[in-house]
Amino acid sequence: MRIAKYPFAVLSAALFTVMLMTPISSLSNLIWLASVDMPVGLISSLEVILFDFQRLGIALFGVIIIGFTVAFTIAGLISKYSSLGGKYLYAVAGSVAIGVALVLMVELLFQTQLLGGNRTLIGKVLHWGAGFLGGYFYFKLISEEKNFTFIIRFLGIFYAYFLLGLVLNWVFTPIIAAADFGFVFNELTSDAQNALLRDFTSFFVATFLFSILGVITLNPVWFFSTGMIYIGAGVFNLVAIYAHGTGFNQIFIGEFVLGSWPIALGLVLYLKQKKTPE
Questions:
Q1: Which residues cross the membrane (predicted)?
Q2: CA–CA separation, 84 and 160 (whole Å)
Q3: Which helix (H) or strand (E) holds 269?
Q4: How far apart are CA 13 and CA 68, in angstroms?
C-alpha cells in the first residue's frame, strides 16, 4: 500500500477537485440565464449542477488526473531535494496544475472555453482555489498510512459516480433514458409509463445507494447486493433473448460489468475481513 496509495491519492484528489470545479461553471451558466430572463427554477438548477458534475466532470477528471500527476511528481521532487515541502507546496502545485490545464484545454483541444465559469476573473480564481484544495487534499491522503480499504472506497465511490449518470437520466430526463433502452415513451400507455419510470428509477437509485452504503460501512453485503442485482439483470436479459425470443441486445454486457465490479469489491472486503483476527 505504500506505493499504491500515491496513484489512488491522485485519483481521489482529482475527483474531489471535479466536485469543486463543476458547480462553478454550472452556477455561472445559471446566473447568465437568469440575467437574460430565462426561467431558472430550483429543480432545473439542481439538474444542471448534478448533470455537469457527472457529464462534464468525467471529461475534467481525465484532464485533472494528467495535470495532478505531473504537478505532484514535480512537487515531490522539490520536496525531496530542497528545503521546501509540506501541504502548501502540494496545494500550490494543484492550483498551478488547474491553471495550466485550463489554458491548454482552450489552446490545444477545444479552441473555446469549455468551462463557462472560466470566462471571468472570479471564475478563474475559484478554479485555482479548487486546485489548491485538491492539492491540499492529496497531501493529507499521502501523509497518512493507508490500507486496502482506501482503494476499496475509491473504487466504490467511482462506481457510484458512474451510476449517478444513470440515476440522473431516469430522474430528470426519463424520455431520453427510456429511449436508450429501446422504449418510445410517448407511445406507451399511462400505466406502462408509470411502471417503466418507477421500476427503472428505483432500480438505479437503489443500486447507487447500496454502493454508497458499501463505501461508508465497508460491509461487503452492500456491494454483493448491488452486484447481484446487475448480474441478475444480465442473466434474465439472456433468458429473455434465448428462451422467450425477444430482440437481441448487448445491454447484458454492461449489466455483467456493473455486477462484477461491486462483487469483486465485496469479495476482497470479505476475504480481508475474514483473515483479520477478531
A1: 7-24, 58-82, 88-109, 121-139, 159-184, 196-216, 222-244, 251-271
A2: 38
A3: helix 251-275
A4: 8
Record the cell numbers describing residue 109, joined without a space.
483541444
Q: How many CA atoms lie within 13 A of 214 on its CB side?
A: 34
Q: Which of 139, 141, 102 is nearest to 124 (CA)?
A: 102
* 161 neighbors 125 (Cβ within 8 angstroms): no
Pairwise pLDDT comparison (39 vs 94), residue with the higher score: 94
Check if the beta carbon of residue 130 is closer than 8 Å to that of residue 21: yes
CB 85 within 8 A of CB 135: no
In sign, the C-alpha dihedral spanning 229, 231, 235, 240 is positive
Which three cell numbers, joined as nine digits, stand for 165?
449518470
Q: Are 170 and 201 in contact (CB under 8 A)?
A: yes
pLDDT tens-digit series, residues 15-39: 999 999 999 988 888 888 888 777 7
**50-73 pLDDT, tens per residue?**
999 998 889 889 999 999 999 999
Sign of CA dihedral 214, 220, 222, 227: positive
* Residues 196 and 185 sit within 8 Å (Cβ to Cβ): yes
| pTM, two decimal places | 0.88
Residue that is written with C-alpha cell 455537469 in the block: 52
- Specify the DSSP element, H or E, that contains 179: helix 174-180
Question: Residue 9 is placed in which grid cell?
Answer: 491519492
Distance of alpha carbon 276 from its chain centroid, rounded? 31
- Cα 238 from Cα 236, distance rounded (Å): 5
Q: CA 177 to CA 188: how far, in whole Å?
A: 14
Q: Is the dihedral of CA 39, 41, 47, 52 positive or negative?
A: positive
